[in-house]
Structure formats: structure tokens, C-alpha cells
Amino acid sequence: MAKKSPEKKNKWTRYIIWMWVLVLGPILGFGALIYAVSAEALGPLPSFRELENPKSNQATLIYSSDKKLLGKYFSENRTNVTFDHLSPYLVQGLIATEDERFYDHSGVDLRGLIRAVVYVGGAGGASTVSQQLAKNLFPRQNLSLVKLIIRKLKEWVIAARLERQYTKDEIIAMYFNTFDFINNAVGIESAAHVYFNKPSDSLNLQESAMLVGMAQNPALYNPLKRPEMTMKRREVVLSQMVKNKLLTREVYDSVRTLPLGLDYRIVDHKEGPAPYFREVLRSKVTEILAQKDPKTGQYIYHDTEGNPYNIYKDGLRIYTTLDSRMQAHAEWAVTQHLGSELQDEFFKNLKKRKNSPFDSRISAKQQEQIMTLAMKRSPRYLILTGKQCANCGRRGASNVVRDKINGQPVFRCTSDDCEFVRYATDPDSIPIIFNTPTEMHVFSWKGDIDTVMTPMDSIRYYKSFLQAGLMSMDPHTGFIKAWVGGINYQHFKYDHVYQGRRQVGSTFKPIVYALAIQQGLDPCHEVANYPVIFEKDRFSLPEDWSPKNADGVYGGMISLKYGLANSINTATAWVMKQYGPQAVVSLARKMGITSPLEPVPSLCLGVADLTIYELTGATSTFANKGMWLEPIYLTHIEDKYGNVIYRFKQKREEPMSEETAYIMLNMLKAVVNGACCDPKGKWTGTAMRLRGSRPYAGIKTPFGAKTGTTQNQSDGWFLGITPDLVTGVWVGAEDRSVRFTSLYLGQGANTALPIWGYYMNKVYADPKLDISKEDFERPAKEPTRTTDCKSYKKNNDSGGFDDPFSN
Length: 807
Hints:
Structural class: alpha+beta
Strand content: 5-15%
Largest sheet: 5 strands, mixed
Strand order of the largest sheet: 2-1-3-16-17
Helix content: 25-40%
Radius of gyration: 35 Å
Number of helices: 27
Distance between the termini: 131 Å
């Protein structure tokens, strides 16, 4: 056999060398590149600590006392869940569609990589669930092609490290928790609630397949905008499950053409139950988390690194006292009375006025002043002047700051969950804007109306609406159970429970009478129903002052019990004169009233401006045996791991004896049951209609009450007291010059009382609520005084009347 020549042998050797260079070169180069990435020669990689504790923004959750989710605070609407809280269909669908060999590789699927290279991606991608998780945890920025390749290699290394740090189940859970399903649904738990209104462990086969299908491209497979494409993508996921023998062909055929079955819920800070409450709570929690130790200057409530907790990113759990069922009943009651009954009556009443909606006694100049002030307080004006965020609605220099972008002045929201930016408006153009017809959505009880009007006309329109506030609390714990701050948070953001102060009228009178009872006066003690004069020198007044009865009726002797039941001003004035304004103020302070109180005689008629929050809390003292408990709505806060980081400390005071409180309850029961007697000999009380047959009435259980109506019917109040719940209700227009023209329509018994009646009827009818229908508990020591005025008259021969409802 002929030997190869040296030239041919060398040539063949060169071919072999080049073949190995072409084959091994890329492999060795690729290996060197991977080594360089691992060694961080091409840029840093996440540390092991970061891999062990990957940061992801988690929403703070707000829970009711009955363990229902009331809402969230978030920059990303994300709530993490563990693997055992995932529907098994989610796991099966994800592995079948995105990573068939998930349980066989260690982060990088070489078989899938070779397939992707050979078929140029036509037979499926090579990215594993672990690699996709790496991308979710450490998102890519805008990168050039070279940097993108390096970034991809980094994700391979990160994926391998994740596989060493976590179990397969943990990786799947982390993947689902970090994926953005768009429409304010970050993570599978949020997505399940947003798209199907259920938790992730309750998702069925087709729901799970839809969400898994979105993982390829959520913007493309957006079920809200492209339902048909989303269904086709869902079908792909189902077919992959069949291919991987995770689903039978029969089941596949039965579900593949089913509709998406969306139950979409908008996720917004303004949506959901108790929006007014949640905004007050947000401010309170933010204030708590910002507290510092005055000695060290360190944050009192901080994470392991000493940083203050972030309400929008740190996944806190806030536990409140609200009961979701009572809250629903309260919101319904306000809507039922105002939306279906009272507002229509108010509109009819306003049509009779020349200056509608203002009182006819308001001059043109006063109207202009009111409208100008209203314009400057309006959300539109505050947004235009940079005092309110146009997106989240928060106000104040700490929330909205002036900034510049490309030399142009802008207003930037500093809230972590918003960060909205808008260009500043020229101040000279603001008056023009307010007087230019504009397309807008305006509120109506029958649904928002699309219309065209000037912003100034919309302000006048909104002044025609009656507003309302309701707070209901357990007097024995101080826990607030329901909180309705207004009629519609989207259009009227001002809270009337904690923020709004309005004149309280006769609802303040129980505090005056409680002082008399505490000082030893009998509830059946009789006084002359004639004007009481407060001398200017004795009471430091500009001139003598004498309050009048609302009904203008005088004469005869009346008991204190009758005076309170029928809100007779002369009787209340008599009590005030006996003990003095300062003594009334002192008692009110012990009962939790913190708003300014002038120690003047007119205080007995309720001229002070108070909040529903403090007035309801004060009234609860009677139902809690003379003990005042600070009304609370926040019990404690936990971090995302379940550790309690804050617990509320409640204040308490004992302003009166148990006997005084019990006597006051019986006097307040006469407001509902009636007390004897008017000039015609009838039993009367300002809230007796609650015992009647009106839709909101018919309540048979024992309870006390007090109505209140301020001057010119600007404010209507009602306080309802049961053994387990004390509830305060206020109704009135935004501006005090907008009101009913008649006392009959504008009194608290017509404006506020029905809301309480609707609310309590719902509460009593709810089988899930354990609310007592029994009478108030008698004191351990039997009272030495009686509210049975017939017996009192017989023993004291000074008049007095029996109470047919007393025990």
C-alpha cells in the first residue's frame, strides 16, 4: 500500500486541527465567557444574600376584624404566596408550556438550548422557568445587543445559583409571585383576584391555563383587550398539558372552547369597601412608621437593616377593627336613604330658590365669595396649582413637589405608589380654565353623567348634593365596626367621620344632662318651661342671652327626662345655668372631646363643631357603664413574616359613675319610647318614628337615641345607642348655606335618623352578626334614683310622669 506523501499528511493534519478549532473553539469560548460571567469579570452578579432574600415590592394588606381583605396599599399590586397555595393546574400548565424538563435540569436546559439553536427558535425557546425567574427578579434595562447577550449569560448563572439555593417548588412559587400579569396584577395571587375574584389556590383548569398562557407575552394576550387571542393561547397551554399526559383528550375537548369567564375587578386605592376609612388609615400608618426615637434619632419601627418600613413595598399586614359585614350594611344604608329618597326631596326643595342651591338670604356678593372659595378648594384648582396629585389625589407640599423636566416646570407626586408627573399650569390661565365649557363626568345617584359644563358650573352642581358620615362602634371595646366618610369617594374625597367638623346641635345635650345626673339631680326633677336668662356680667357676655325653644312653645313644668326626650332648650339651659359652662367642658373632655370648646352658655345647645368620631366615642360612655374608651380602628401591624411590629395602645377615662350612665341610658330611651306629656297630653320623643312602620323603622329592641338639628337646618344628626353598638350619623350639604328650607324636612329625625334605622335593621337581620337585642345591663348596685316619673311624683309631690316602656 502506497504511503501518503508528507505534503498530503500535513494537509490532512491541518484539516483535523481546523475541524477541532471550529468545533471546540465556540465551546471553549462559550465556556470561557460563562466563566468570566461567573467570576463577575463582565459585571457584578447578585450576591448570595440577595439570592436568599430577593427583593420584590409587596403590597400592604388591610384586614377587617372578620378576616376579610378590605384593600391594599401598593406601588405594585403584589401579594406573595407559597407553593401549597397554588392551584395544581397552574403548576402543571406552567411546566408543560414553559419548561417540560423543569425537574430534570439544574437551571439551564442544554437539550432545549440545542433545539433552539438548530431550529432557530422555531421549535420552542430554550429559556427555563429558573431563567425566567432570574429575569423577573433582576429585570433587564434597555441594553445593546452585546450587553443583552452578556445579560442572558448572567441569567443562566443566576438560574443555576437559584437552583442551588431553592427547591423546585420554591422556584415555581417565586416565579408566579414575581410575574407581572398587567392591569395592576403583579404576582399570581393578585392576578387571580383581579381577573377571577378568587384566591390562586381556587383557580380551575381553564382559569389557570389562561394565566399561564399570559406568561409568554401579557401585553399580547391581554384578556381585557384581546380575548380571542387569549383563548387561543389558553388552548395552546391545554394542548401542551395533553401532550405531557397531564390532561386527557376528553377533558381538553370539554374546556378548550369555554369562555374566559372573567370576573374582572379594578384594583385601585379608590375602589373597594371603606375607601374613606382606608385613606385615614393610610395617613395614620404612615405617621406611625415615620416615628423616631427622640434619644437616638433612629426609626422606632424598622427592618433588620434599620430602614423604616415602606407601606407600599414591604408587604405589611394591617389589622383593623372594622367588620366587613357591618361596613357593607352601613354603606348600603347611606346609599338607600340619600340616593333613593332624601336627595330627590332636596332637589325639589332647591328648585324653589332664586339663588339655587344657596339660601335666598345669601347676597350676590356672599355667593361670589362662597364660589371663589369653593373654586380654590376644588380638586381641579389644587391640581392646577400643584397642591394635589392629579393621579392619586393626595394633597400637601410633602406629597406634591415642584420640579423641572427639560427646563419645563412640573409637579411631581412623591408618594411611592404613584410618582405621577404633570406639567405646571400658568397661573394666569386658571380663571379661564374654570370658565371654559369642558367635557367631564359628574356624579349622580343613578350613575355618572357624561356632560359638558364649565368647572365653575360643576362646583355649583356639586354643592346641591347632601353629604353624609356614619361611624358605628362597640362601646365595650372601643372598636370601630363601620365607617362611611361620604357618599362617593371618586367624586367627594373629604372624610366626614374623622376630618370633618360640623355643629352638633342637640346631640351635645346628653353631656349637659349627664353633668346634672352626676351631681345628684333626679331625671324626674321638674323645671319651668320658660326662657332662662344668662346675665352678661355673671357669664362674661356682651349682653344678656336667653335661648328659645325650637317650637316656640312655653309654659308649665317639665321633667328633665321630658326635656331631653323632646330636646327642649329651656330645660337644657336651666341645667347649664346651675352648673356653669366650664363644668360641662370639663366633663366633655373626660368623655374624649378634643375639638375646641368655648365655655359659654350657648354650648348647651351644641354650637361646637365636633367630628362624628369624637361625638360617637363620647356617647359610647353611657353604654359602657360610665367608662370612656378611645375609639380605635387599628389593632396591630405585622411585617411580611408575621411578626408584630406595632400594637395600638388605647386610652381610657372614667368620667361618670355606673349609676349616672345607666340613668342617662334610660333618659335616652325616652327619646325613642316617648315621655309624658306635651300640652295635649301625648307621649312624645324626637325619635319615636323608629317604632313606627316606615321602611327604616319597626325596631322593637330596647335602645336609646338623640337627634340633633342645627340652626337653619344646616346639619342633621342622629345618635343611636344599643347595648353592643353606638352609631353616629351626620347629614348636610358641603356648604352650610345650602340646606332645606323647612324644619320638617331638614331636622335630624328626617335626614340622619333613617340611615341609622336602615343600618340597624340590616345588622339585626344578619344571622352572622351576634348583636344583642336585649336591654342594657343593670348596674351591680341598684340605682337610688328612678326614671319612673310617676313614682317620683307620688313620693316627692312635685310633678312627673310615668314611662310605659320602662322596666
